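Sequence, please.
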């Protein structure tokens, strides 16, 4: 599994306004074929731009594709912490509500936070922590009422483990 899934079809970052040097570094990491070199570039980006949510997202996507789910989850938590800081809300996702932020914004830390909540749920599913995954994905459903982030399918997977129909 030496290939990193594309972050997107055109770039390695998600925010519209990032420092040009960070954009260049993330794009370079996307192009590098060697897994160790790619990881080192992403770690360098995190060291130099720890306050940029995109850095943490790139890192958790990398770790997830490498099936390094514990490291992916740690990077997700860093992303959530940065997102909460930028949004100005609590770090405890369990305490968030629809009124905590404008979750319908298409760009900005709110959207990246929701993507990271989904990632947390998926990492937990992969790690066999189904109840914990269900909890975080239920919160995502509450905040992302129109399922724009795509967490519903993963929530249903988590719920299926608790179904009495089988």
């Amino acid at each position: 599994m030496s290939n990193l899934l594309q972050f997107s079809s055109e770039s390695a970052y998600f925010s519209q306004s990032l420092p040009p040097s960070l954009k260049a570094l993330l794009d370079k990491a996307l192009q590098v074929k060697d897994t160790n070199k790619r990881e080192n570039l992403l770690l360098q980006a995190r060291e130099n731009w720890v306050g940029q949510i995109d850095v943490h997202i790139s890192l958790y996507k990398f770790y997830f594709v490498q099936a390094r789910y514990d490291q992916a989850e740690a990077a997700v938590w860093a992303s959530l912490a940065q997102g909460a800081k930028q949004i100005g809300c609590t770090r405890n996702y369990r305490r968030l509500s629809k009124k905590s932020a404008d979750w319908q914004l298409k760009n900005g830390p709110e959207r990246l936070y929701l993507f990271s909540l989904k990632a947390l749920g998926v990492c937990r599913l992969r790690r066999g922590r189904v109840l914990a995954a269900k909890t975080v994905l239920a919160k995502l459903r509450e905040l992302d009422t129109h399922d724009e982030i795509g967490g519903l399918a993963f929530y249903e997977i988590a719920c299926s483990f608790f179904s009495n129909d089988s």
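The CA atoms of residues 80 and 113 lie 6 Å apart.
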